[in-house]
Design goal:
The protein is mainly β and 460 residues long. 2% of the residues lie in helices and 37% in strands. A hairpin with a 5-residue loop joins β4 and β5.
Length: 460
């Protein structure tokens, strides 16, 4: 039971207060950014359903249609769920999922309404919606992407929504606009085919009253922090890298915070206070997407696309010690070096952010090939296939209550038991395309499908 629901019961009412309590996010209750607290993807603390059926309503708490097309994930604070979308004036837009290598752009360069929604977590009722901006997107998107890929973030008082070239917007949790920032043109596409436009996807995070964004576009490479109260730019650090889609991750370090960045030529960390570099390493894949994940003194980074320099590792997994400082030499599996605990080649993720849960590190490729390692030593413990190998997997895995949830692009959710042995628990079907990573909150799993937000769990 969440603290807010408990407070409502103490007050002698069965209703749930809607206003979230600001402060530190509560594990198992709040899911404040992409992949939850610290991008860990873990929501322990309450029993979670293993089986459900959308068509019959079994274990479906609610389902709320959301107009438009978006791959941004839902986030949660207390009794509120936030989600963004981009709705084209012309109505239905093209979305092509699956395993294909074409880099074509969609042709929906029409006016879109870029929106932020707030839903009641208990019922799915839309509490408010705001149109952040209405315009024709500055750049095209990939046929598998959308014009709204970035997940919003909240600290319980503010909600920030990032739409790439269409701007960064900050609202109160009650829907009042506080500020907006134009980050400039952010045209993102493959480094080796600069004529292609694939769309922006890195998500903002909020930590210690600062909004942090990582922007790796064709003509702009930087990470920057803004004051969450008024949008003032506090610092901006240049990045020497290729275009990418990775979201930064904040890691507590002593009395301060480090901001971790994935990349190709610029993997590393900067100080949240002033943006100064802490450590740096090169050698990632050419189209970096997964966010860094930190835990137990280790930082897990991965990429899958071919390297841009001869001699760099193919599809690497790097596990860097949190104590790393300075310029790190490129490690090898045989000689990882002083600052790298272990590494692997040939097994890195393309789209999914890895999951580290109960001592095991899980890496799932876009074709459903799952590899798991002992998180501390790097010893491989699992190598299995999810699905048939013919369906794509883009949403990142999440975990809680000893279960791990892997979602295919076709909406098939594979539930696997956590541990060193592979055990299939269930397979559930959402009935729609599902590209977004789900959120976990207070015993419920909240999915974003092609047309709806769906809450898995018993009705309350």
């Amino acid at each position: 039971m969440s603290l807010m629901r408990w407070a409502a019961l103490i007050a002698g009412t069965t209703s749930v207060i809607a206003v979230a309590i600001a402060g530190d996010p509560r594990p198992g209750v709040d899911w404040p950014q992409f992949r939850g607290i610290g991008a860990a993807g873990v929501g322990d603390g309450s029993p979670l359903p293993a089986e459900w059926d959308v068509s019959s309503g079994k274990n479906i708490a609610w389902k709320t249609p959301i107009p438009g097309l978006a791959h941004s994930s839902p986030i949660v604070w207390g009794e509120r769920v936030f989600v963004t979308t981009a709705a084209a004036d012309s109505g239905e837009t093209e979305l092509k999922v699956g395993l294909y290598g074409a880099g074509d752009s969609a042709a929906d360069m029409v006016e879109h309404a870029f929106k932020l929604y707030c839903l009641d977590r208990a019922s799915g009722k839309i509490l408010w919606e705001q149109t952040c901006v209405k315009r024709v997107p500055q750049f095209k998107r990939h046929t598998k992407a959308t014009h709204c890929n970035s997940t919003p973030a909240t600290d319980g008082r503010h909600v920030v929504a990032l739409f790439g070239s269409e701007g960064l917007y900050c609202y109160t949790v009650d829907g009042k606009l506080k500020w907006k920032v134009d980050l400039g043109p952010l045209d993102v596409g493959p480094h080796d085919a600069t004529e292609l436009q694939w769309g922006f996807a890195s998500s903002p995070i909020i930590v210690a009253d600062r909004v942090v964004v990582q922007c790796d576009a064709k003509q702009a490479h930087f990470i920057a922090a803004f004051d969450v109260a008024d949008g003032r730019e506090l610092w901006r650090t240049a990045r020497d890298d290729v275009p990418g889609w990775a979201t930064p991750t904040a890691m507590k370090a002593g009395d301060g915070w480090q901001v971790l960045m994935n990349g190709c030529k610029h993997i590393g960390a900067v100080d949240l206070a002033d943006g100064r570099g802490i450590w740096r390493m090169s050698g990632g894949g050419g189209i970096p997407v997964p966010a860094p994940v930190a835990g137990d003194g280790l930082i897990y980074l991965t990429s899958n696309h071919r390297p841009i320099r001869e001699g760099d590792p193919l599809k690497p997994i790097f596990v860097v010690r949190a104590s790393a400082r300075g310029e790190l030499p490129l490690p090898t599996e045989e000689q990882p070096g002083e600052h790298v605990a272990w590494m692997k080649t040939g097994r890195g993720n393309y789209m999914q952010t890895p999951l580290v849960y109960r001592g095991i590190a899980y890496f799932c490729n876009d074709n459903g090939a799952l590899t798991a390692y002992d998180a501390a030593s790097g010893e491989q413990v699992i190598r299995e296939r999810l699905g048939t190998g013919k369906t794509g997997f883009s949403a990142s895995a999440v975990a809680g209550d000893g279960k791990i949830y892997f979602t295919s692009e076709e909406g098939d959710v594979h539930v696997v038991s956590a541990g060193k042995t592979f055990e299939r628990v269930a397979e559930n079907h959402m009935g729609e395309v599902c590209m977004a990573t789900p959120a976990i909150s207070d015993g419920r799993i909240i999915f974003r499908t092609r047309g709806s937000v769906v809450c898995i769990g018993t009705r309350r």
